[in-house]
């Protein structure tokens, strides 16, 4: 990327050292296998969902179109972070080049912002399905779905460019130890020798938009869904409507709760060690849990899995 190359030329620091999650030698190997196992579950779960949705035509609906893209985002999102994190458990110094650090920061931000907006698109889809079922097919046409998806990735790209462009303009100090297991915004700002006022302003504005807009969209969607559900007279109908939304509510709560706790609190109130634990939820735990949440509570996915597994090879 030209932007990152320009920043590398202007910076006196050519590489960073990632401190990792904790500084406890006895826990490094157990944690390595713990997070390696979680990464395997994340990869298998998300690629499994992508494969199931792609192979089963009855899952080619707006709901599963967005779930397909959520799994796509979670797979790459986790892959940007976890392999480098695992290296910090087995290496004495987990070194990352300046260009590698800024590249990781860009793609981390692109996928995390895209995830926040894909979750809001999924909430809108559930609103259309439950509140306006008779016109659902017209409301969530292929063209509408593609426009929503385009908006998701445009917002992800715009947010990533804004943060990365502000980061590469900084000059970093000789002390290049980043107190984190990845190149994230706040720990990198701690290593800057120049004023970070603009960066902090961009964090509050952009993160406020990237958390605020999806959160408001989701709250409005679910307020209207709840109002619609309460008007359903049959207990079975209410139960079915609630079960349709419950998986999404769990995923949204985990993702936005941990993200807001990390970025929308003043740094003086949140020590970086606590921030690292908080960031584990939206970088490691959420991408791992999403395929489990959406598959274990979803009859369509279970049916698709049975159908796929029962197919004979070369039949």
Automatic annotation (TrEMBL):
GO terms for molecular function: G protein-coupled receptor activity; olfactory receptor activity. It comes from the Eukaryota. It is a multi-pass membrane protein. The keyword NADP does not apply. Keywords: Cell membrane, G-protein coupled receptor, Membrane, Olfaction, Receptor, Sensory transduction, Transducer, Transmembrane, Transmembrane helix. CDD domains: 7tmA_OR8B-like (cd15405). The chain crosses the membrane at residues 31-55, 61-83, 134-158, 170-189, 201-229, 241-264, 279-296. It is found in: Cell membrane. InterPro entries: GPCR_Rhodpsn, GPCR_Rhodpsn_7TM, Olfact_rcpt. One of its GO terms (cellular component) is plasma membrane. Pfam families: 7tm_4. Residues 45-294 form the G-protein coupled receptors family 1 profile domain. Belongs to the G-protein coupled receptor 1 family. Putative odorant or sperm cell receptor. This is Olfactory receptor. It comes from Odobenus rosmarus divergens (Pacific walrus). The gene is LOC101372743.
């Amino acid at each position: 990327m030209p932007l990152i190359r320009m920043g590398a030329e202007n910076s006196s620091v050519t590489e960073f050292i990632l401190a990792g999650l904790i500084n406890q030698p006895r826990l490094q190997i157990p944690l390595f296998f713990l997070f390696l196992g979680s990464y395997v579950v994340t990869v298998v779960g998300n690629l499994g969902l992508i494969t199931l949705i792609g192979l089963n035509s009855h899952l080619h609906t707006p709901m599963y179109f967005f779930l397909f893209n959520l799994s796509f985002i979670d797979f790459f999102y986790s892959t940007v972070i976890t392999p480098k994190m695992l290296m910090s458990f087995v290496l004495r110094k987990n070194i990352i080049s300046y260009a590698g650090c800024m590249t990781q920061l860009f793609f981390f931000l692109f996928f995390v912002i895209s995830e926040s907006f894909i979750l809001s698109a999924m909430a809108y889809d559930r609103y259309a399905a439950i509140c306006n079922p008779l016109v659902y097919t017209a409301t969530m046409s292929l063209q509408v779905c593609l426009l929503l998806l385009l908006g998701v990735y445009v917002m992800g790209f715009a947010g990533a460019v804004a943060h990365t462009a502000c980061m590469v303009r900084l000059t970093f100090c000789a002390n290049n130890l980043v107190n984190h297991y990845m190149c994230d915004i706040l720990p990198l700002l701690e290593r800057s020798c120049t004023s970070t006022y603009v960066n902090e302003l961009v964090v509050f504005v952009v993160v406020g938009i990237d958390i605020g807009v999806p959160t408001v969209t989701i709250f409005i969607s679910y307020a209207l869904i709840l109002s619609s559900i309460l008007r359903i007279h049959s207990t079975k109908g209410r139960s079915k409507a609630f079960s349709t939304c419950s998986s999404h509510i769990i995923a949204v709560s985990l993702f936005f709760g941990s993200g807001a706790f990390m970025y929308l609190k003043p740094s003086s109130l949140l020590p970086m060690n606590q921030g690292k634990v908080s960031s584990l939820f939206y970088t490691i735990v959420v991408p791992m849990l999403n395929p489990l949440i959406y598959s274990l509570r979803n009859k369509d996915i279970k049916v698709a899995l049975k159908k796929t597994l029962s197919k004979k090879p070369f039949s």
